[in-house]
Write a structure and sequence with these properties.
Number of strands: 8
CATH architecture: 2-Layer Sandwich
Radius of gyration: 14 Å
Number of helices: 4
Oligomer: single chain
CATH topology: Alpha-Beta Plaits
Number of domains: 1
CATH superfamily: 7,8-Dihydro-6-hydroxymethylpterin-pyrophosphokinase HPPK
Largest sheet: 6 strands, antiparallel
Distance between the termini: 33 Å
Structural class: alpha+beta
């Protein structure tokens, strides 16, 4: 059966639409069945704003993988796409973040679930609220719609 997992995809280098399509294909092949995808959003870069805009999308996946197994696959997909991690919040061909893994709360040296920045990032909350408006954050017990309403992020996020 598996667990329902929400994953954020992002790209701001190269062919951004193709990069997201490749990520979806590889996640579907390696991690589990993609149940739903949000629209794709053009978003201003967060953290380090002096770089090209991102294309972001949230996907909902059903997977039998453990969080750690999923992370291994996600990192491998990023690496094979050409991602180089040399600058925090720097430009990247592909960025894949595990947002929610069912209602699991996990904090380890490798992985924190739910992703700790969800409430602070409009580029994450808009696509999340599009496909799962009533999903409740397991830590703060607020829905994605509530979190979006309360989010103070003012960076540009527009649906393609």
């Amino acid at each position: 059966m598996g667990v329902e997992i929400f994953i954020l995809l992002g790209s701001n280098l190269g062919d951004r639409l193709e990069n997201l399509a490749h990520a979806r294909q590889e996640i579907g092949r390696l991690a589990g069945q993609i149940i739903t995808t949000s629209s794709i959003y053009k978003t201003a870069a967060w953290g380090n704003e002096q770089q090209p805009d991102f294309y972001n999308q949230v996907i909902k996946v059903r997977s039998a993988l453990s969080p750690e197994e999923l992370l291994v696959h996600v990192l491998e997909i990023e690496k094979k796409a050409g991602r180089v991690r040399n600058e925090k919040w720097g430009p990247r061909i592909l960025d894949i973040d595990i947002l929610f893994y069912g209602d699991l709360i996990l904090s380890s040296d490798l992985l924190t679930i739910p992703h700790p920045e969800i409430p602070n990032r409009k580029f994450t909350l808009l696509p999340l609220a599009e496909i799962a408006p009533d999903f409740t954050h397991p830590v703060n017990r607020k829905t994605n719609n509530q979190l979006l309403t309360e989010c103070t992020d003012v960076l540009s996020v527009e649906k393609l």
